[in-house]
Design brief:
This protein has about 100 residues and is α+β, with helices and mostly antiparallel strands. The protein has one domain: Alpha-Beta Plaits. Strands 2-3-1-4 form a four-stranded antiparallel β-sheet. A hairpin with a 6-residue loop joins strand 2 and strand 3. The chain is globular and about 40 Å long. It has four helices and four strands, in the order E-H-H-E-E-H-H-E.
Length: about 100
């Protein structure tokens, strides 16, 4: 069971949504291979094509910390100011309902 679920929200600059989506999708494979990663998914809003979300489950918060410190995530985060309006909003959650 995940100790930590994050929803990260990105709002692409005008004309940069496809590029943001491409950069986000590059994170999927290496993230899913990381220790403690239980889920890593990219979603694009059906209502606003500039709105993107990453849903991720981590076995431990420390696994997420290591993920954020990885070279490829740091390189991606350095691109965020040119691709996005505003800052990335990362909301942390814990599951309270029973699992299936």
């Amino acid at each position: 069971m995940a100790e930590l679920t994050n929803a990260a929200f990105f709002n692409a600059r005008s004309g940069r949504s496809d590029e943001l989506g491409s950069e986000l999708l590059k994170l999927v494979s290496p993230s899913r291979q990381e220790k403690g990663c239980l889920r890593y998914e990219i979603h694009q809003s059906k209502d606003d094509p500039h709105a993107w979300m990453v849903l991720e489950d981590w076995r431990q918060p420390s696994d997420f910390d290591l993920h954020m410190a990885s070279d490829y995530v740091r390189a991606f985060m350095a691109k965020v100011p040119e691709l996005c309006v505003g800052k990335v909003e990362i909301c942390a959650y814990r599951q309270v309902s029973p699992q299936y």
